[in-house]
């Protein structure tokens, strides 16, 4: 699965190694700021635009237009199904993060991955959101991630990789450990 | 902004009040399970499908097809810009959650909202993701949310509403407080 520019799992391994070396030389390169703008469209419906970010000491200009993600609730939660809801979008964010972590680290370690799938589940009790409980939490009580990977690497090596990915995944870190969130009305 | 079915801010207020009453009568109605399936498509690119969920004591059947959200990285992070990345998707999830919380609670309290916008920013240092630091965290060091609301309600009332939303937002709860995440290879 390697070709002349040393891609493994679709990842340019040379660029990955070069990035690590550059960050070692100049820690400022590792500082990123990501952004999103969200507009309410009525009821539970909103649209988020995602385009610019800062990183590697510069404002990124690689995206010609913004990605758009719509959010809404299903009818049972008073919405009109214009998009996945917020806690479903969170499951996507987590799975997307684990995917990148798994694939990039597999590439770096010389592991070829043929396929990778995640089944995500989150259990949530609405009492707190509805203002009916101070003891129940508003968010998921538990998230269960099951993943299936096809690879010629031994299962033990894949499990080690998964353990490593769990230590270094940005979204998983933000779920397992508190993140400071400042909210200000302007 | 009220009409015959008592919609405020596009939210069916009668249905909202009825939902609260039903949950008070039967706590089981409040139990939901949300789900997502994510497939790796090569490099940093994945696609998440979101459709079914369990809630209000039944499997939902309101969605005729799955919502799809694609994730990828920009070129500087070895991707091809097929979608927003995981930590950007997380900003969407948070803003979408705050939107629903703000709008639904405004509707319940009789506050008319004309417009609502969120500007989201998250600062992240790549050292941990790249395996170059044990002391830096992989996730955002800080998330900053700025929101602008147009409403005929007094600013003080809107700020109180925002404080209440912060206490009851599922995604904000999951960022500010640890969530158990179980990860299993199948």
TrEMBL record, chains A, B:
Annotated GO MF terms: peroxidase activity
Stretches that traverse the bilayer: none
SUPFAM superfamilies: OsmC-like (SSF82784)
Record Gene3D superfamilies: 3.30.300.20
InterPro entries according to UniProt: KH_dom-like_a/b, OsmC/Ohr_fam, OsmC/Ohr_hydroprdx_reductase, OsmC/Ohrsf
Keywords: Oxidoreductase, Peroxidase
Top-level EC class: oxidoreductase
Keyword Oxidoreductase carried by entry: yes
Regions annotated as coiled coil: none
EC number: 1.11.1.-
One Pfam family from the record: OsmC
Hydrolase keyword on record: no
Listed name of the protein: OsmC family protein
